[in-house]
Amino acid sequence: MYYPYVVVGAGLAGLTVAERIAAGKNEKVLVVDKRAHIGGNVYDSYNEDGILIHNYGPHIFHTNDREVYEYLGQFTKWDDFWHRVLTQVDGNLIPMPITLETLNRLYHLSMSPEEMERFIAARAVPLEEIKTSRDVALSKVGEEIYQKFFENYTKKQWGVDPADIDTSVISRIPLRFNRDTRYFTDKYQGMPHCGYTKLCEAMVHNKNIKLLLNTDFEEIRDDLPYKTLIYTGPADEYFHYKHGKLAYRSVDFVMETYDMESFQDAPVVNYPNDYDYTRITEFKKMTGQQHKKTTIMKEFPKAEGEPYYPFPTAECKAQFALYQKEMEKEENVYFLGRLAEYRYYNMDAVVRSALDLYRDKLC
Ligand SMILES: Cc1cc2nc3c(=O)[nH]c(=O)nc-3n(C[C@H](O)[C@H](O)[C@H](O)COP(=O)(O)OP(=O)(O)OC[C@H]3O[C@@H](n4cnc5c(N)ncnc54)[C@H](O)[C@@H]3O)c2cc1C
After folding, report:
1. Which atom in ligand 1 lies closest to the alpha carbon of residue 251?
2. Which CATH number fits the domain that encloses residue 227?
3. Per-residue pLDDT at 172 exceeds 90
4. Domains of the chain: total
5. Residue-level pLDDT at 168
6. Cα(326) to centroid of ligand 1, in Å?
């Protein structure tokens, strides 16, 4: 059967465009994904103990974009969820990002907001030029806070010393001079009531959408007729790596299940200085599931493997710009999403881009 629209990738980018073409235009669309499931990186599933896990890392929906919140809300009921993160520093578990509460607990003080401002100002290092990621942190919070919270975490997460890299890795240091310990401050925050996979299934529940899973686009692209292609796979792969392989940071997600109700005090605990993993997520604390056991996930960043985080350096961006030039020459092909656009996207932002693409170019 001929499909005028072909979407490569069944992540949130691809599914949003497919849903709009199918429901908004009443046109047939084929969605191809090389994985065995839809949802891309937001895919979640029940493990052998019956605990809902996020297979590709913890995903918390948060946005100030009401249209995106309401668009996704057609496919799920949202459960209220205000994400909180603790970080282990000097043996203390204290809130992240750095708030008044964080510093008071770390230094056993009881500062007011104004005193915190003076505390930070006295430590920030005035630098003539901000050249590296270390400079960004030093100029904002000073040496000691930089070392406790950012230096080793960055080394683990990106495999580079912040002093050796431009300002793209640590581009800003979020500081809150109040006691708001929520991790995100967006107006809308939540978890899909039945999980992300169910949300995605509801998006593709349309007779105009045909799913082709376990299929690498590369293997069928020469034989696949279409009028319009929406490509959400990796940019370098589409062009057969003619400008080289784009660099990504990958992660090993290691799950452990314990015969106990609760493992830790927060949904996520960061470990900037201890252990080889960056953080531990306890899924029940995000999903609200009641279960007598609990599953946690440890994240071990690594250089090779599934592409998760594009390297945000100027060099990598320049390499990607060569691919962008190639994209401009392609006819009837639209490039969308975190892999095709080689950028870190939050879920709400990728849905926003997909809705905009549909509105501006496809409908
Ligand atoms: C560890 C981690 C945690 C995150 N946490 C959050 C969070 O808390 N909140 C938030 O808002 N965002 C979070 N994100 C970001 C979120 O995952 C992305 O915004 C979203 O997944 C992007 O959707 P996408 O469709 O662009 O990409 P993806 O979800 O990656 O989908 C791309 C799809 O394309 C398929 N594909 C690739 N190549 C081919 C090919 N050749 N043929 C066929 N199919 C192909 C892939 O299999 C994949 O299914 C997180 C990301 C990571 C990595």
Report:
1. 1
2. 3.40.50.720
3. no
4. 2
5. 85
6. 23
| Domain coverage including residue 152 | 85-164
Same domain, 16 and 111: no
Q: What is the mean pLDDT of residues 254-266?
A: 98
| pTM for this model (two decimals) | 0.96
Residues in the chain: 363
**CA 41 to ligand 1 centroid distance, Å:** 4
Residue with tokens 């047939």: 28
| pLDDT surpasses 90 at 269 | yes
Do 328 and 209 belong together in one domain? yes
- Within-domain flag for 175: no
Task: Tell me the C-alpha distance between 111 and 114, whole Å.
Answer: 8
Beta strand 29-32 pairing with 228-231:
unpaired
Condensed to tens digits (0 to 9), the pLDDT of residues 277-321 reads 999 999 999 999 999 999 999 999 999 999 999 988 889 999 999
Query: For residues 32 and 210, what is the distance between their CA atoms, to the nearest angstrom?
Result: 9
For ligand 1, say whether the CB of 59 is within 6 Å of any of its atoms: yes
**Ligand 1 pocket: which of 55, 222, 232, 248 to mutate (most atoms within 8 A of CB):** 232
